[in-house]
Design goal:
Largest sheet: 16 strands, mixed
Number of helices: 12
Shape: globular
Strand content: 25-35%
Distance between the termini: 20 Å
């Protein structure tokens, strides 16, 4: 028995050493810089999922997977032909007509102008309503942290007015900033939290206020998307108001937004209240259509084909708006090019990994994580286990406060302490380690990782910071930081290798 135990230990030790002695090289700039520039070029027309540019990007990514000699990924529900594409269809609901008016309790009715004074994100059905109006501050309910915008108000069947950000987000020295910055690392997830709060409280519509003059008129159609198999989770329409429309709603009330923000930032006090004698009327008429989209997926078969590791990044962006191309270099040509660089190096290493390595480019992330959601919903988890999903979304720029360009956000589930230890150790191996922002993704839905955490799958999601060019035509290839992306990919690659080594010795 002792001999058997000793032999098993030696076998495990040798297996670990063998894999660590034949590592997959970390990507260098030449492995991804050309791919990033091409995906972010004007020729790709902003890579909107349902557009010609989106399909051109998918073709290009598939051609690179074939060049790198990946095996085509064929989902059981897909055609048996050799293809890197996972095709499916989504539903788009476009606003054909919309109105938004304010009645001040007298004969005065203000009719707001769509596109110039507000934009709307609809639900998947036409509707018409009139109701009272409630100001709900930042729209947050955090009783355990002594802040709750809904504590003293009732919003059931009412329109809710909500500020962007969180208490103190404009003042880095404030109590609110120090309390909530860590809790809300992702702007998209913060807004989703507010939306779900309002829905749970029974609101009939959500109006996001503009306190800073950030509203930008948009001449493109307002629309909502969902897969054919799942209706949208959005159950109330969302209106985004301009600064002038914001003032129309608050006129005649005691609410002063600058004072409201200051009280919330410094004292964590909410100014939520019903707007007396005001009514809001809105109506939305929709046009619906079905459109094709596609994920692009390749793989390297492992020795144990019952287990899989996924390295993924969405390739879609916002397309063309107001005749401007939204190139999406950082969001997310950076992640897609990084995924392809890792695929290249893993394939060229000629190492057969212990488990399947799936390299995926998700579509329609900008429309609600639809590509990754479709993939995981059609993945037979009873026959194949996903050990880990790595997600890369915006890995080549830095936030304004990151003056040294050395902050890196890595999200994991709360229970996955081993992944945080791996990331920390791999970061320390860099010549110039990052300042890591390790955060817990539990309850967050800001990127494609959420499609996997919803199924209980461990994830690591990499993000280098929101910058001033986020979701603007200025997010171009010449603005990315190739050195930062190179170092991010080094951590991603070494983390995957370390995870495989650790998992192989402990299973």
């Amino acid at each position: 028995m002792r001999l058997q135990k000793f032999s098993l230990v030696v076998l495990i030790f040798c297996k670990s050493i063998l894999f660590s002695q034949t590592p997959v090289p970390n990507p260098v700039k030449n492995d991804f810089s050309g791919t990033l520039s091409f995906l972010a070029s004007d020729w790709m027309e902003g890579r909107e999922a349902t557009s010609k540019g989106g399909f051109k990007a998918a073709d290009y990514i598939a051609s690179m997977m074939e060049l790198y000699q990946l095996t085509s990924y064929n989902n059981q529900s897909q055609t048996k032909n050799k293809t890197f594409f996972q095709d499916f269809k989504i539903r788009r609901h476009t606003v054909e007509a919309v109105s938004l008016t304010i009645n001040n309790g007298t004969t005065t009715t203000i009719v707001l102008s769509p596109k110039t004074e507000y934009q709307v994100t609809p639900v998947n059905e036409s509707l018409k309503k009139e109701t009272s109006i409630v100001f709900a501050g930042y729209g947050l309910s955090l009783p355990k942290e002594n802040y709750d915008d809904y504590k003293k108000i009732t919003v059931k069947d009412k329109v809710v007015l909500i500020l962007k950000g969180y208490p103190g987000y404009k003042d880095t020295t404030s109590i609110g900033y120090k309390k909530f910055k860590k809790r809300f690392p992702e702007e998209n997830n913060l807004e989703e939290t507010k939306i779900q709060n309002a829905i749970q409280q029974g609101a009939t519509a959500i109006l996001f206020l503009d306190a800073d003059g950030d509203f930008k008129p948009n001449s493109t159609d307002d629309a909502i998307f969902h897969s054919l198999e799942k209706p949208t989770s959005l159950s109330v329409p969302i209106f985004r108001l301009s600064a002038s429309a914001t003032q129309f709603f608050l006129a005649g009330t005691s609410i002063r937004l600058s004072e409201t923000e200051k009280k919330a930032a410094q004292k964590l006090e909410t100014s939520s209240s019903l707007l007396p004698n005001k009514k809001c009327h809105f109506s939305i008429e929709l046009k619906s259509e079905t459109l094709p989209v596609r994920n692009v997926i390749g793989m390297i078969p492992g020795k144990d084909t019952s287990k899989t590791i996924i390295i993924g990044a969405h390739y879609d962006h916002l397309g063309i708006k107001n005749d401007s191309i939204y190139n999406g270099a950082d969001d997310n040509a950076s992640g897609a090019s990084g995924m392809l660089a890792l695929a290249k190096n893993w394939s060229e290493s000629k190492i057969q990994p212990p488990y399947n390595m799936v390299f995926a480019s998700w579509t329609a992330e900008e429309m609600g994580l639809l590509g990754s959601e479709y993939f995981v919903d059609h993945f037979d988890l009873s026959k194949q286990k996903i050990l880990l999903c790595v997600n890369m979304d915006m890995i080549s720029r830095s936030a304004p406060e990151d003056q040294k360009q050395r902050i890196l956000s890595i999200g994991t589930q709360k229970e996955d302490e081993n992944l945080r230890k791996i990331a920390t150790a791999c970061n320390q191996n860099l010549p110039n380690p990052f300042e890591l922002d390790l955060w817990e993704t539990n309850g967050h839905t800001g990127s494609d990782y959420a499609s996997f955490t919803a199924k209980g799958i461990p994830i690591m999601t990499f993000f280098s910071g929101f910058h001033k060019d986020y979701h603007s035509p200025r997010d171009r290839a010449e603005s990315v930081d190739l050195n930062k992306e190179k170092d991010v990919l080094s951590i991603v690659n070494t983390s995957i290798l370390k995870f495989i080594e650790t998992h192989s010795t402990t299973k």
